[in-house]
Amino acid sequence: MLNPKTQAGAGARWRRPLLIGLTIVILGLTVCFWVYGFFGPPGWRIANDDLTIYTDATRRLFGGGQWYLDRQIHGPYEISHGDVLYPPVTALFFGLWLLLPGWSFSAIAVGVTTWAVWRMRPALWTWPLLALCLAWPMLGLKVLRLNPSVWIMVASALGVRFGWPGALILLKPSFLPFAAIGIRHRGWWLAAGLLAVASLPFLADTLAYPRIVLDARGGGLAYSLPDLPFVLLPLIAWAGRRRTAPSSSR
Predict the structure, then answer these.
(1) CA nearest 175: which of 235, 135, 118?
(2) How far apart are CA 142 and CA 180, in angstroms?
(3) How high is the pLDDT of residue 67?
(4) Would you say 68 and 39 are in contact if contact means Cβ atoms under 8 Å apart?
(5) Cis status of the peptide bond prior to 201, with omega within 30 of 0
(6) Helix, coil or strand: residue 78
(7) How far apart are the C-alpha atoms of 249 and 101, rounded to whole Å?
(8) CB within 8 A of 139, min separation 6: which ones?
(9) What's the rounded Cα separation, in Å, for the pair 221 and 176?
(10) CA-CA-CA-CA torsion for 191, 72, 225, 81, nearest 10 degrees?
(11) What are the distances in angstroms from CA 203 to CA 40, 120, 208?
């Protein structure tokens, strides 16, 4: 009969190949999901769909018009495709894609998140969990559609590493609890203050934003539940980070 030490040693020998094998299988399924998501119905035909909503809103705002759709400012409304659900200060960000190619919206977000997670050097036990987050069908869909939620993933990834970017999650109220990422850093408070100052030129639309959110039907926390793995992916990597990894700047 094997003694406990021998059993523990045998378990340790199998643990690494099992975790790596499981990760490879999940990533293989992820590739299948993403390929099907692009080439299957409706696939590439919806690419750039969500970013267009906000670049159009940015053009309206910078042209002297209103940030929100008319249907959103006359009382309760059911959330539907085309509604503007971010505060007007985000026009300063979306305005970049009046100049940049649309595909770069998701490409930069995925690239920055990948870099941040890689720099954390997450432990082996996190690899299958990270792969599951990547396999989540909504992630591929929102990357394809150039949905702003992919940048909440970036804010989470950079927030656990540097602190201050966590304040940017304030721009998506349905993820408000996660905005506390980095709140102990002075840079977080500075970033939150800069967001407030940057909102002043759009004061009327900014003051209307809480009403726009409260009047929305089909919103709330449940509205963002499909996006939860985006925020959790960097947090899982951070929880399993190697202690020898470079520490976050303060």
Answers:
(1) 235
(2) 24
(3) 94
(4) no
(5) no
(6) strand
(7) 32
(8) 133, 150, 229, 230
(9) 9
(10) -110
(11) 43, 39, 9
Average pLDDT taken over every residue of the chain: 83
The DSSP result for 25-60, as a single string, is HHHHHHHHHHHHHHHSSSGGGGTTHHHHHHHHHHHH
Distance separating alpha carbons of residues 154 and 22, to the nearest angstrom? 26
DSSP assigned state of 4: H
Separation in Å, CA 220 to CA 59, 125, 143, 210, 213: 27, 33, 22, 12, 8
57 and 84 Cβ atoms separated by less than 8 Å: yes
Decide: helix, strand or coil at residue 217. Answer: strand
Contacts of 62 (CB under 8 A, 6+ apart): 91, 95
pLDDT at 89 over 90: yes
Tokens of 8: 């523990």
Altogether, the residues listed in the chain come to a count of 250
Q: Hey, which residues does 77 pair with through a beta bridge?
A: 216
- 197 φ, ψ to 5°? -65, -40
The percent helix, strand, coil of the chain (3-state, each to 5) is: 75, 0, 25
Helix (H), strand (E) at residue 216? strand 216-217
What pTM value is reported for the model? Answer: 0.81
| Dihedral sign from CA coordinates of 6, 11, 14, 20 | negative
Q: How far is CA 225 from CA 149, 173, 213, 229, 243, in A?
A: 11, 12, 16, 8, 31
According to DSSP, residue 122 is labeled B
What is the per-residue pLDDT for 39?
60
Q: Give the tokens for residue 201.
A: 């030129």
